[in-house]
């Protein structure tokens, strides 16, 4: 959480960044702070998303590689919020003030709605569109190969790289689960068809849906090299609530959409249960990292619940 002084400084940097795209007169509205500071830029009847990134969080090379991948998706016909070149022709600009420096990127605004379970759009058409978008992205990734450089292998991200120090030494059961997951993942055979660039979090908060247009994805800040089945597992992890019959129906619709876009990928989906387990381990590690060594009582309750899911090995058929 930023204090008032920090927020004012970031607001100044956001205004400086908007000028780099010739939008200094546009209205700026703060949306969120997570790994990045995200702002809405509105003017002349149009709207964009401005993202500010700390260089300690993502390097210039990592930012540029991410945007190169997004442009590749667009060239392949996959709908994703696109980066906009600045007035100087750069995809990423550096803005600085009072000793602070951030990287800035501007993106088109994703059309459509945020669709959650209480939306009247949540249903078979939506879930099939979600799956098709995921499959189309992976099909484009197969053609992309390693062209981006600049992005990391999944196990080099900080949560996995520091996992054995993040997990308290007393949690030998969690450490055993980590060792088993890493060993099994290391045994998987990687090919050009099952491993490549993934989004990392294709969930409703990171895309918008228009029934006429389909899914438009955004927030590729965690894209990295991973098994495509891991991306499928992330999406399915969102669906693992409610009665078993309902979530099985939701899963079948999403996977049907996925296979519409990637029919030959059916054997890869056998890896999804493993990656569901890896996903919940990732989420647990991310919260250990975020909360630090002295979590609040509420944070500890979150950690305890996540640890329980880790040890339950994320069984799809178990009660959520």
What does this protein look like?
It is a single chain. The chain has 320 residues and is of the alpha+beta class. The chain folds into two domains: 4-108, Phosphorylase Kinase, domain 1; 124-311, Aminoglycoside phosphotransferase (APH), C-terminal lobe (Aminoglycoside 3'-phosphotransferase, Chain: A, domain 2). It is built from ten helices and ten strands. The mean pLDDT is 94.
By secondary-structure content and strand pairing, the structural class works out as alpha+beta
Could you estimate the helical fraction of the residues in percent?
40-55%
State the end-to-end CA separation.
30 Å
Could you name the CATH topology of the largest domain? Aminoglycoside 3'-phosphotransferase, Chain: A, domain 2
Task: Report the top-level CATH class of the largest domain.
Answer: Alpha Beta
What's the main sheet like?
6 strands, antiparallel
- Uncertain residue ranges: none
Q: State the helix count.
A: 10
CATH superfamily of the largest domain: Aminoglycoside phosphotransferase (APH), C-terminal lobe
CATH architectural group of the largest domain? Alpha-Beta Complex
- Give the rounded overall mean pLDDT: 94
> What general form does the structure show?
globular
Describe the structure in brief.
This protein is of the alpha+beta class and 320 residues long. The chain has ten helices and ten strands.
Question: Keyphrases for this structure?
Answer:
320 residues; alpha+beta; Phosphorylase Kinase, domain 1; Aminoglycoside 3'-phosphotransferase, Chain: A, domain 2; 2 domains; six-stranded antiparallel sheet; two-stranded antiparallel ribbon; globular
